[in-house]
Design brief:
Number of strands: 7
Strand content: 5-15%
Structural class: alpha/beta
Radius of gyration: 18 Å
CATH topology: Rossmann fold
Strand order of the largest sheet: 3-2-1-4-5-6-7
Length: 248
C-alpha cells in the first residue's frame, strides 16, 4: 500500500535491535520506508538502526510513557510491526509468579500499549502486524506463560481488528513456527526452522494489500520433507548437550 500523504510511509518496529525486528527494518528501508526502530537497550539499538539507515528511540514497549515517546518521534504511524517478545519460563510447578507476569507483560501487555499509543497517529490506510507463535495454537509444556501470552496476543489482535475496521486500519497476526534467531538459544533440541527472511517477506507483503482486504492471520512454518526442507537448526544449548540430530 502506498503512503497516504506526501513522503515516505512511516514504519515503527518494536524489538528492532535484532532478529525479526531488525531484519524487517532493513527490508523496509530498502523498499523506501521511513523506519523507526525501538527496543530497550540504547547502545545496541543505536548501532542496529545506524547499520540500516533507520531512526531509533530506546524504550520499553510495555511502558505507555516510553512508547508514547516513540510515536512522538515517528510523527505518524503508517505501519506498526510489533516484533518484541521473549520466550521465557518453565514448568508451572517450578515457575514463579514474577516470571509468569513478566512474560505476559512483555508479550501481551506490550501489544495493548503499542496499539493504544499508535492509534492516535494512524490514519485510514494504516496497518498493524503482530508477531505471534505456533505455541498460540499448540501450547508447549514447560512454556505455559509463553503459550498463554501468544494465545492472548492472537485474541487481542482479532478483537482490535474488528474495532478499527471502520477507521480503515488493518490488523494482522503473523503466527510462525520456530525461526532461527537468538530467541532459540536456550532450546535443548534441534529443530526445523524458518529463516528470518521468510518471515520478513510475509510482513512486507501484508503492507501491499489493498485496504479492503481482510487477512486476520497468516501461519508460516518450515516444510519438514522434500527438496525445500532446511537443514536442522541446532541451538547453542542443544549443542552443549551433544544433541545435534533431529528427534526421531
Amino acid at each position: 500500500m502506498q503512503d497516504q500523504g506526501d513522503g515516505k510511509r512511516v514504519a515503527v518496529i518494536t524489538g528492532g535491535s535484532s532478529g525479526i525486528g531488525l531484519a524487517t527494518g532493513a527490508e523496509l528501508v530498502r523498499r523506501g520506508y521511513d523506519v523507526v526502530l525501538t527496543a530497550r537497550t540504547e547502545a545496541t539499538l543505536q548501532a542496529a538502526a545506524e547499520s540500516i539507515g533507520a531512526r531509533w528511540v530506546a524504550g520499553d514497549c510495555a511502558d505507555p510513557e516510553a512508547f508514547a515517546a516513540v510515536v512522538q518521534e515517528a510523527g505518524r504511524v503508517d505501519l506498526l510491526v510489533h516484533a518484541a517478545g521473549v520466550m521465557a519460563g518453565t514448568f508451572v510447578r517450578k515457575e514463579s509468579i514474577e516470571t509468569f507476569e513478566s512474560v505476559l507483560r512483555t508479550n501481551l501487555t506490550s501489544a495493548f500499549v503499542v496499539a493504544h499509543a499508535s492509534l492516535g497517529s494512524m490514519a485510514a490506510g494504516g496497518r498493524m502486524v503482530f508477531l505471534s507463535s505456533s505455541s498460540a495454537h499448540a501450547p508447549q509444556p514447560g512454556r505455559s506463560a509463553y503459550s498463554a501470552s501468544k494465545a492472548g496476543l492472537n485474541a487481542f489482535a482479532a478483537a482490535l481488528a474488528k474495532e478499527v475496521e471502520r477507521d480503515g486500519i488493518a490488523v494482522h497476526v503473523v503466527t510462525t513456527g520456530p525461526v532461527a534467531t537468538p530467541m532459540l538459544d536456550d532450546v535443548h533440541f534441534p529443530m526445523l526452522t524458518l529463516a528470518t527472511s521468510d518471515v520478513v517477506e510475509a510482513i512486507a507483503w501484508l503492507d501491499t494489500l489493498p485496504g479492503n482486504v481482510l487477512l486476520p492471520e497468516i501461519e508460516v512454518a518450515s516444510v519438514g520433507t522434500g527438496p525445500f526442507a532446511p537443514d536442522a537448526f541446532v541451538p547453542e544449548a542443544a549443542r552443549k548437550l551433544g544433541r545435534t540430530e533431529l528427534p526421531s
